[in-house]
Amino acid sequence: MRTSFARLLGRSGIEVSAMGMGCWAVGGPWNFNGVPAGWSGVDDTESLRAIQCAFDLGINFYDTAANYGAGHSERLLAKAFKGKRDQVVISTKFGYLVDETAKEVNHYDTSEEDSDLASRVRESLENSLQRLETEYVDVYLIHVWGLKIERALAAREVLEEMVKAGKIRTYGWSTDRPDAIRAFATSPNCGVIQQQFSVLDGNDELMDLCKELNLGSMIRGPLGMGLLTGKFAPTSTFANDDVRHHAQWHPGFKDGKPTLEWLDQLAAIRDVLTSGGRSMAQGAIGWLWARSPMTVPIPGFKNVAQVEENCKALEFGPLSKDQLHQIDTILKRNL
Fold it and tell me: d(Cα 100, Cα 131) in Å, to the nearest integer?
């Protein structure tokens, strides 16, 4: 049964299911500048079953990147949607050198800059189109969080060319910097951003900017890299080939373990998130829908059970305004 309700990706006008599927984890193991950046091993058969399950439940939006599995995630989506490409919306990302054979991803050069940026952008897009077995991508995102604004604007010139050529429908940037987005999103063909946001973290200024500029907000980390499912304890650990073992940049992790601060906050709001029969994950997704009409959460997955649980959030819908207020009161914050 299809249970999805729809949202628009901002001024792009592209209609998507209110939740997408984040395809980082199903890419399998890979290294980013020599450090494990995947979510440990995967079973492609189960991944394909999970993607089909999401599609059957009304999910038409799938977010991947050239980085994920060093191209493997893109190839998996090509296999999943062969013969039904016109029924789904695909987002992918660029900004790094991808070695599929070695499963290695690195910066273009010794920094995040590159003198031959235009050719890099074109080459990256063509490689992604080939792996996805498609003639176009719906959403194309800069994947370099800290790229200098002037370099992003130079890349935007190429992205505009690709829109005119019909190879991408809209584009944006995966970053949490309001100044960068305000400068980058001056073109009407820039319709989306991707930002880290959840009931426990995120940049409120950037979220409000999406509403001001009519930008779709693709939410990465809507479940706090799994922490907001409520399945982890202070003693939980992750394998060395699991990115969470190394995710010092995420506020919910330190030294490869969940932080007490996040676990305590989550325990404090558990009753609100699980009201009405929701699971913790479903409540966290519902909070994001209630937070802004621009949001499209893209939780990750590795199996059918996770997809089914996340998709059931569509049946519950957004939390109420009263529930938002309760959570803000408990966490002693104002929106």
Answer: 11
